[in-house]
Amino acid sequence: MRLHAVLDFIDRQGWLDRLGERLQRELVRAFAAGGPQGRRVRDLLHGTWLGHPLHPALTDVPLGAWTAALVLDLLGGLTGRPTFGRGADTAVALGLAGALGAAATGLTDWQHLAARPRRVGLLHGLLNVGATGLYGLSLLLRRRAARATGCRVAILGYATAVVAAYLGGELVYRERVGVSHVAGQVPPREFVPVLPTVELYEERPRRVQAGGMAVLLVRRGDRFYALAETCSHLGGPLAEGRLEGNSVICPWHGSRFALADGRVLEGPAVFPQPCLETRIRDGWIEVRAAER
Fold first, then answer.
1. End-to-end CA distance of the chain, in Å?
2. DSSP structure class, residue 267
3. What is the pLDDT of residues 19-54, one digit of tens each?
4. Homologous superfamily assigned to 192-289
5. Which of 6, 97, 121, 241 is in the most buried spot, having the most CB atoms within 10 Å?
6. What is the value of pTM for the model shown?
7. Are 244 and 256 in contact (CB under 8 A)?
């Protein structure tokens, strides 16, 4: 069966939607119950503080450790030296520890997905749970002097993890989960008029076009702010969001950005919003790329 046929099969699995909806509700409820502390934990797991999603970095730990264990098991089998076996056991244990962090960050990111990305992400997570369980069993067998069986179970766990990793790549490269949704948008280098000043009202964000780029305009007294209008998280329309002080909150998932410089004040977003420079000329608001 070709890989695209596998993905088509996933799309037909209604039980993934039903399970995903229930699990997402519980995750959202759990973080909300924590109040401000829950939001801080959520942003920590998202990687908001890092300026980059934390989950991809942590997934390298179990995959790298289990790859090392596979190699060491092969070397141990070829040479008969117990040193390789002990190294493999340590690598399996390290991978299990890393899998916990990868699972926590992955679930936190996944709670905001819908439709096909949610289905693929849920199956990705379930396969990783299965791989982790197999490696846990492998470690137990190794410690009970059933190394040969433990090694075979580890190979099955590694194959499961590879399939899960493929689905993770599908989420990133096809569904654009975990990447900036404003990365390809280029603001004009020179000032361009976008809106008469009399048409921009206080407390009413406005979406305009500047050289093919969607721009959010906000007026605060005599100050005018301009940011990329597409939320960097999952592409939400910031012009439909609400203002809170000198920040704007995405209507889709609640990411909050500073109007002055586009930095992330609250996740789930991890990438800042591109900020544009503004000026008033002949009764028009003009914008251009901000000077760095």
1. 50
2. S
3. 999 999 999 999 999 999 999 999 999 999 999 999
4. Rieske [2Fe-2S] iron-sulphur domain (2.102.10.10)
5. 121
6. 0.89
7. yes
